Amino acid sequence: MVKAVVLGAAGGIGQPLSLLLKCNPLITELSLYDIVNTPGVAADLSHIATPAKVAGFLPPDEGLAKALTGAQVVIIPAGVPRKPGMTRDDLFKINAGIVEGLATGIATTAPKAFVLVISNPVNSTVPIVVEVFKKHNVFDPKRIFGVTTLDVVRASTFVAEIVGDLSKAPDVVVPVVGGHSGVTIVPLLSQSSHPLPSGFSEEKFDALVNRIQFGGDEVVKAKDGAGSATLSMAYAGAEFALKVVNALKGQKGIIAPSFVHLSADPAGGEALKKEIGADLEYFSAPVELGPDGVVKINPLGKITDAEKKLVEAAVPDLTKNIQTGIAFTKKSNL
């Protein structure tokens, strides 16, 4: 029996994410929460012929607590999308309070659940969730994840396009490390399961890296003020949730990049800090998953000089983003 909860289930990411989770035969109960429309979304999804029993909750009558009771996997896509001209700092000011409130609900009702944070900016919202859990004395670094899977999905797709065969996209594996915004996104293209064509120029390499790092901007611009990457993010969120559920049910050898607190694996975390040359508390690295969450934080491995420069460029922004999230909860009266 697996109960999954989506917090922000009526939004642009939440609805397609909930649909994909309802289609996952491993999920037996799906609980949806948002400030509006969740009963309708739940009723609609409940007609789909898959095992998950669906229920929708609103804030009145302890709706959040009811949604979270008995949860094993909680996914948070709640918050506002990024609009044209909006910086991630602007986004943070709005979404930070939303995430803090939801994290409080999880910490008090389902502290043992795996928490998958999608709400942007992930580099700052994951530290908020962690600090809330610390305040409630329920923090387990093995169970809190920043979902960076969209960067991996984009890298796989774009490499398949360059290779000239999109049918290979599902099989292309490109580790993406660092964080989940702009220059903090570091694709390790040298480790791609499908190598780039021989003679791939430095200029084309830089363009590919930039497209992976700023793919979100491409979508925001194309939607012309009508939203951000919702459908691809929902797909990526469901993919990572599937890995977590499979690990929860005992499948071995599942590895996926995720933005985690490096104390989740102290030995692996310390080794990673030496690799990146910075004493960061959080980093997105290939993480091995198990029934209790993080089993191991894997090293970056052999990377090129160009990739080392990308890692170096990511560290200052990552440091600032992490500190922003921590500082927010310190100021809070929670």
TrEMBL record:
Q: Which CDD domains match?
A: MDH_glyoxysomal_mitochondrial
Q: State which Enzyme Commission number(s) the record gives.
A: 1.1.1.37
Q: Which GO terms describe its molecular function?
A: L-malate dehydrogenase (NAD+) activity
The record's comment on protein family reads: Belongs to the LDH/MDH superfamily. MDH type 1 family.
All residue ranges annotated as the Lactate/malate dehydrogenase N-terminal domain in the record: 3-146
Enzyme active site: 180
Query: Which of the seven top EC classes does this enzyme belong to?
Result: oxidoreductase
Q: Could you tell me what reaction this enzyme catalyses?
A: (S)-malate + NAD(+) = oxaloacetate + NADH + H(+)
User: What are the binding positions for NAD(+) in this chain?
Assistant: 8-14, 34, 95, 118-120, 233
Which GO cellular component terms, listed alphabetically, does the Swiss-Prot or TrEMBL entry include? cytosol
> Where is the Lactate/malate dehydrogenase C-terminal domain positioned along the sequence?
148-328
Give the matching InterPro entries. Answer: L-lactate/malate_DH, Lactate/malate_DH_C, Lactate/malate_DH_N, Lactate_DH/Glyco_Ohase_4_C, Malate_DH_AS, Malate_DH_type1, NAD(P)-bd_dom_sf
Oxidoreductase keyword on record: yes
Assembly: Homodimer.
Any one Gene Ontology BP term: malate metabolic process
Identify the residues that bind substrate: 82, 88, 120, 154
Keywords (alphabetical) are: NAD, Oxidoreductase, Tricarboxylic acid cycle
What is the name of this protein?
Malate dehydrogenase
